[in-house]
Design brief:
The protein contains 13 helices and 3 strands, in the order αααααααβββαααααα. By secondary structure, the chain is mainly α. The protein folds into 2 domains: 79 residues, Orthogonal Bundle (DNA polymerase, domain 1); 169 residues, Orthogonal Bundle (hpI Integrase, Chain A). Strands 1-2-3 form a 3-stranded antiparallel beta sheet. The termini are far apart.
């Protein structure tokens, strides 16, 4: 599969797919091939359907994850192997949209205060203050912090799009303290890798996962399954509750479609609390009260 693998990588790169997407697609195709112990070019729609059923029944994957596997296989057969692909023969599973977990502002404070190191603390603060994705925070550069305009430049976000978000004065103060504490001042990455934060590459996204998990455990919030994206959801929901409009939040999050952002209406207690239940408009007897008879 080496030649086919390289050919698929070349096709993905020609279309300017993100490195993370390329890795995800290649991994999905390798797992498909390994399951049948056969090269993908010898397999067809019947095998794809069988594999799709296995992903649901045995691996218990979510429908969105199965869709990602199918997208990788579709790219392989259509763009690389130049074969047809029938939606009727290999239908995409119905999407399941679940409401994300959101912490209260008090719990976010507990999480940040429970960070097990100053480095983890600044990572958590940056995640929450900017609403950026974990990879976007990991790849921030020193030059992306614009204290003159009080904005943070997010470069090459999802979909290879740049955007600006607000630079919180509180975050700026914390970043300056973090900067003063570094033994060697970075010239490129804001959060350099390795134990002493002196690497030539940025921290990995795994470091941000670890920062969230360890802080959640120390804060007694482990049962809430907190991860870096949780703080992005908190950022959006808390902005909405504070009066920000959906269009502004859409721009800050880098969402392509406003519909993606409307999910936070379901999470905002301000919006939910402002709408009365129709039950409150009914005149009903208290339980146990007898109807009067004349």
């Amino acid at each position: 599969m080496t030649h086919l693998r390289q050919k698929m990588i070349d096709e993905l790169r020609c279309r300017n797919f993100a490195p993370s997407t390329i890795r995800s697609y290649i991994r999905a195709v390798e797992q498909f091939s390994r399951y049948f112990n056969c090269s993908p070019h010898q397999l067809g729609p019947a095998h794809v359907r069988q594999y799709q059923a296995m992903l649901f029944s045995h691996r218990k994957l979510a429908s969105n994850t199965v869709t990602q596997h199918l997208a990788a296989l579709r790219f392989l057969y259509v763009k690389v192997l130049k074969r047809g692909w029938s939606i009727a023969e290999t239908p995409y599973p119905k999407k399941v949209q679940r409401l994300p977990q959101v912490l209260s502002p008090e719990d976010v404070s507990k999480l940040i205060d429970a960070a097990d190191s100053p480095f983890h603390r600044i990572l958590l603060m940056t995640l929450y203050a900017t609403g950026a994705r974990r990879a976007e925070v990991a790849h921030l550069k020193v030059s992306d912090i614009d204290s003159q305009r009080m904005v943070v430049h997010i470069r090459g976000g999802k979909g290879r799009k740049d955007r600006d978000v607000m630079l919180s004065p509180k975050l700026l103060d914390a970043l300056r303290r973090y900067w003063r504490g570094l033994k060697r001042k970075p010239t490129d990455w804001l959060f350099p890798g390795n134990a002493w934060h002196t690497g030539t590459r940025p921290v990995t996204t795994k470091v941000l996962w670890t920062a969230c998990e360890s802080a959640a455990q120390r804060a007694g919030l482990r049962h809430k399954h907190i991860h870096p994206h949780t703080l992005r959801h908190c950022f959006a929901t808390h902005l909405l509750e504070a009066g920000a409009d959906l269009r502004t939040i859409q721009v800050l999050l880098g969402h392509r479609d406003l519909e993606e952002t409307t999910i936070y209406l379901h999470l905002s207690t301000r919006h939910l609390g402002a709408t009365a239940s129709p039950l409150d408009a009914l005149t009903i007897r208290p339980q146990g009260e007898q109807t009067s008879r004349t």
